[in-house]
Amino acid sequence: MVEVGLTIQPTDTGPAVAQGNRHILVTRDLSIFYGTVPAVQQVSLDIAEKSITAIIGPSGCGKSTLIRAFNRMNDFIPSARMEGQILFHGTDLYDDDVDPVEVRLRIGMVFQKPNPFPKSIYRNVAWGPAINGYKGDLHTLVEESLRRAALWDEVKDRLNESALDLSGGQQQRLCIARALAMQPEVILMDEPASALDPVSTAHIEDLLYELKKNYTIVIVTHNMQQAARVSDFTAFLDAGRLIEFGQTQQVFTRPKEKRTGDYVTGRFG
Amino acid sequence: MSEHDDHLRPNLARRRRNARLFRHLCAGLTWLAVALLAVLLIHVTRQGFGWVDLQFLSSFPSRFAEQAGIKSALWGTIWLIALTALISIPAGVAAAIYLEEFAARSRINSFIEINIANLAGVPSIVYGILGLAIFVRWFALGRSVLAGSLTMSLLILPVIIMASREAIRAVPMSIRHAAFAIGATRWQTVRHHVLPSALPGVLTGVILAMSRAIGETAPLVMIGALTYVAFVPEGPLDAFTALPIQIFNWASRPQQEFHQLAAGGIIVLLVVLLAMNAAAILIRQRSQRKARW
Amino acid sequence: MTTVAPTLTGKRRRRWSERGIRGVLFLFAVLSVLTTLGIIIVLARETVGFFREVSVFSFLFGTRWTPLLEPKSFGVLPLLNGTLMVVVGSALIAIPTGLASAVYLSEYASPRMRNISKPILEILAGIPTVVYGYFALTFITPVLKLVLPGTQVFNAASASIVVGIMILPMVASLCDDALRAVPGSLREGAYALGATSYETTTRVVVPGALSGVVAAFVLALSRALGETMAVTLAAGATPRLTLNPLESIQTMTAYIVQVSLGDTPRGTIEYQTIFTVGALLFSITLIANIVANRVMRHFREVYE
User: Fold this and answer.
1) Which partners does chain B have (≥3 C-beta pairs < 8 Å)?
2) Which chain A positions have a beta carbon within 8 Å of B180's beta carbon?
3) What number of other Cβ atoms are within 10 A of residue C145's Cβ?
4) Among A80, B1, B41, B218, which is most exposed with the fewest C-beta within 10 angstroms?
5) Is A178 an interface residue toward B (CB < 8 Å)?
6) Half-sphere exposure of residue C114: CA atoms within 13 angstroms, side-chain side
7) What's the pLDDT score for residue A42?
8) Chain A interface, best mutation among B177, B182, B290, by max A CB count within 10 A
9) CB B157 to CB C222 under 8 A?
10) Do A90 and C3 touch (CB under 8 A)?
């Protein structure tokens, strides 16, 4: 155990995560290769329900590859190959029987660069539920999702306008609303604020505190302060390997590995 | 140092002169092509302009040049293009969707791609021979508009496929990923997001393919489009004639008046083509203004 | 504790309809393969029948082509000769002009000039071939007769000129693509050494784009090979072994049209000549296209 003097202080505010929260998303000795090049090596991770888990690490450490494996987005990369398991509520996500489309209905994703559909704001949020035969009231669902994404007040009068007319921060919140409309259990976020200005970033971070009450969130970020501010658990990856994983407080103030300490104090990466 | 200067200076002047001559030569030859186009259009217009009037558009061909018109050819072409569009557009776009969205990088699929590229270079008369043997004879469709449309569809299919593939490819991956991430299947993504975004490009390609089909004569000759037709087709199995066939027929006759009639037909044909290409350009421009990814 | 997981394997219906759609789309993609197969089978069947009556040797090397007149003779060389004359003639026009246009468009023309000339070239490419045939017959031939009094009413030269104009845009456009693909750094290197634009273009840029340029030529010539209506209208219906472009000749494509316009009953040897000559035409253009595509692929690899 290493004592380090910190330049970043993790916040003490925010509801503490109950130690008893079950782990709904679990990886066991997960390795992911692009061809023969390993991107993720032997990672074993337990994601706790209704918490925020941050994955941090230097560029190229495999965080994006890892998170994309959770909702089977790596399926679209022909050279990607996997070993090990990812279990969601005990079922291996990569089992032959499992339909990747179903996986993505339960595990949603928000991308680094906002990618709203070139359609109206309303259509962006309503499309997913509609094609899946949503039986309830679409209008209510759209409003609810936009409220949860803290976007409703800004767009309620212009739902039929093009989503591309919104600012970058608004587009990203729209993408979050779109993901929320599918009522997933888990939301994966791949550096959701890195393309945004500080004000929008702050909006999104505030959002995460609220979302945590109802959703399990896994967020990849290269912004350590963000990870420290927002998350309950932190996983530190370097060169594809999981160096350390634990409660955020502990990882940032009393890291068990020297490498972790070096990274969080900015000595490298 | 001065020795170098003596050797360099004469060369420079001559070389610069050569460069200027070359530049003018290239420009001149380019404008020659433009001039040839102008000559062609002027010649055709002068020959045929006097013949194009309402009577011309509404009469059937005749032994007597003054009474002859392109009514049957015009209607035949309309039937032909309508049926060809109905057949070739879904088939071509479907093939393009498969190749771009659903096909893995397998040997079979590269083979299909190479095949399409080769088909694009096969002479149109060979398609005519194919149409004759398969549609006219084997399918027993006779010398009908349907046989002609099927043959034309095969001819322009590679063009539609290649243009549609480019349009589909131009749609950014991020939109597809956004759709997949909320649990959409590949077809749902294509149907609701990729195709609508690719539509302008596909439409442009389709219009250009159709304008190629309108001007093609050789395949129609092969499948037996008649050259003297005094009626308008009433069903897909009727015999027919088409604008380019009529033009060809009139141009093949020795008399001067029939040559002028041919010129009249050419004017009508070119006007139709101009309208179609203008539409394609308009669509392309409008979509470029609208598209923001 | 309820498990959500089992439904991960549910919704079989969605999977099956997705598979069905994929299958239908695949069939349409396979249609193109069927087309090629169709062409090969259709041509081969009648050609085989033809070669039961006529020896391959006398077909490929015979010098008299009179399948419709007595005494019948099936030597295809006159038709090949006619086709080649038109192809060579059109090449003489289209290749230098097309390449020069491409050079102008990619190396010299201002964006404004480019925006005017490119659409005009596209218009030239879009004019139907029967219009070019008409132009050859009613304008070019009379002009030729004025300038060269020995010109016949139907002649190869007129058709060659017009086919040349027809394939010019193709040469220009493909060469333009090839020239633009040459990296700017190559040009800059030459200019930095004090070369003029003429020297840079002819000794650096064009050689650098050589495989693309050659592929463009081969593709355009293959298009000229298959050209039908212009040669039918302007070049004549007289199969003849001659090198004089002012005489009437007949190309392979024009012959096929001639037979089809006539009353040729099925099963006769005249009917079979349609397919045999068609097979010869198809083979030549196929080889030309394969060669050109292979050269183009090589050219693309070099820059990627």
Assistant:
1) A, C
2) 73, 76, 104
3) 16
4) B1
5) yes
6) 13
7) 92
8) B182
9) no
10) yes
Residues in chain B, total: 293
Distance CA(A223)–CA(A195), nearest Å, equals 12
C33:B33 CB<8 A: no
Write the single-letter amino acid at A64: S
DSSP assignment string, chain A: ------SS-----SPPPPTT--EEEEEEEEEEEETTEEEEEEEEEEEETTSEEEEE-STTSSHHHHHHHHTTGGGGSTTEEEEEEEEETTEETT-TT--HHHHHHHEEEE-SS----SSBHHHHHHHHHHHTT--S-HHHHHHHHHHHTT-HHHHTT-TTSBGGGS-HHHHHHHHHHHHHHT--SEEEEESTTTTS-HHHHHHHHHHHHHHTTTSEEEEE-S-HHHHHHH-SEEEEEETTEEEEEEEHHHHHHS-SSHHHHHHHTTS--
Amino acid at A220: V
Spell out which residues of chain B touch residue C233, defining contact as CB-CB under 8 Å: 248, 251-252
Between B7 and A242, residue with greater pLDDT: A242
Report whether pLDDT(A9) > 50: no
Mean pLDDT of chain A: 87
Partner residue facing A73 (CB), from B104, B181, B292: B181
Residue contact B95–C39, C-beta within 8 A:
no
Fold of the domain built from segment(s) B54-290? MetI-like fold (1.10.3720)
The alpha carbon dihedral of C134, B131, C32, C79 has a sign of negative
Token pair of C97, please?
């002009």
Give the closest of B102, B127, B269 to C22, CB-based: B102
Output the pLDDT for position B68: 80
Residue A161 has pLDDT above 70, yes or no: yes
Q: What ranges do the domains of chain B cover?
A: 2-50, 54-290
Q: Which residues of A198-237 are buried (b: 16+ CB within 10 A; e: fewer)?
A: eebbebbbebbeebbeebbbbbbbbbbebbbbbbbbbbbb
Q: Work out the minimum CA distance from C13 to partner chain A, whole angstroms.
A: 11
Give tens-digit pLDDT for B46-65: 888 888 788 888 888 777 77
Chain A residues within an 8 Å CB radius of B293: 118
Among B43, B123, B251, the residue with its CB nearest the CB of C226 is B123
pLDDT tens-digit series, residues C164-179: 999 999 999 889 888 8
Q: Is the confidence at residue B165, as pLDDT, over 90? A: yes
Give B239's strand partners. Answer: B144
Q: Give the residues across from B144 on adjacent strands.
A: B239
Taking the complete model, does pTM exceed 0.90, yes or no? no
Rounded-to-integer distance, Cα A250 and Cα A263, Å: 14
For chain B, positions 10-69, list CB contacts with chain C under 8 A.
Answer: 15-16, 18-19, 21-23, 25-27, 29-30, 32-34, 36-37, 39-40, 43-44, 47
In this complex, is the C-beta atom of B181 within 8 Å of any C-beta atom belonging to chain A?
yes
